[in-house]
Amino acid sequence: MISVSGLTKRYGARTVVDDVSFTLEPGTVTGFLGPNGAGKTTTMRMMTGLIPATAGTATIDGRPYADLANPGAVVGTLLDASAVHPGRTGRAHLGLHAIAVGVGSRRVDEVLELVGLADAARRPVGGYSLGMRQRLGIAGALLTVPPVLVFDEPANGLDPEGIRWLRALLRSYAENGGTVLLSSHLLGEVEHTVDRLLVIGGGRIVADGPVGSLLGASGTAVRSVDPRGLADALRAREFHVERQDDGVLVVDGAEPATIGAIAAEAGVALIDLHPVQRGLEHLFFQLTDDSGAAHTPAEH
Ligand SMILES: Nc1ncnc2c1ncn2[C@@H]1O[C@H](COP(=O)(O)OP(=O)(O)OP(=O)(O)O)[C@@H](O)[C@H]1O
Predict the structure, then answer these.
(1) Ligand 1 pocket member 146 (CB < 6 A)
(2) What domain of life is recorded for the organism (predicted)?
(3) How far away, in angstroms, is 34 Cα from ligand 1 center?
(4) Burial of 267 per CB tally in 10 Å (0-12, 13-18, 19+)
(5) pTM
(6) Cα-flanking dihedrals φ and ψ of residue 51, to 5°?
(7) Ranges assigned E (strand) in 79-137
(8) Tell me, what's the ipTM?
């Protein structure tokens, strides 16, 4: 189990991670979601002992990362996939890593196969695409089959097939009892992969819960040939209707079937009708708009 409590990082007067607390249970994939600069990487770097925390603690099975006898056997990290010597082959890079964490060369070949790099393994990493470097970084994290994975933006540079592959890998890791934390600045990238979302903005956790409840459908978006007529008909039934610039009406708390029936009654033809999940998207837009940057203590 991973336990983060009151984790805080200040650079001078700037608080870039502010009193962050959460617990991660085995068998789950948690998405650490937030806009650029929200504090995801800094939190993960503190959790894995790469940088010291200003305050707070992060423990894995009750111990700080730095106190683990062989941290590489407990936590597989992907924190900077570009930090690889470009002249070294993928296999040589992993070979060095394997020695450091105490596994043999057979496992190197297994993980190369697992991440789809077996054919490229004898080529210098300098010639790898961004996606291939990500796969190499993931291979390094999996060498010891650690019970915990901490991956920073693992989908970076992966194509849609690669993202599907990553999703299946992380899901099966969790199904086998692993604890997975992955960060992303894109909601769509993680919403189908994770069980739970931890949303961070301006260094603080702003939402934390199961994906279903955070993303729960909250209304219906409808496009029609007569937005004004349809809005009148909906308001007459006491629905809250918001008209967007493109003429789409967003109706809070309504099922598409209800909206379709009201439109039919009012004689308004519909062009498009679908449920919308506005809760988290709305929150995310707000974060992206105004609190993506870190704040100083004086702003509290
Ligand atoms: N060494 C440092 N010195 C000063 N400020 C830093 C340092 N490292 C990070 N920061 C600042 O901390 C804030 C959080 O950065 P962090 O990299 O943790 O964000 P992030 O959520 O991972 O963003 P991204 O999605 O862009 O990777 C940013 O404002 C960043 O500029």
Answers:
(1) no
(2) Bacteria
(3) 12
(4) exposed
(5) 0.80
(6) -135, 150
(7) none
(8) 0.96
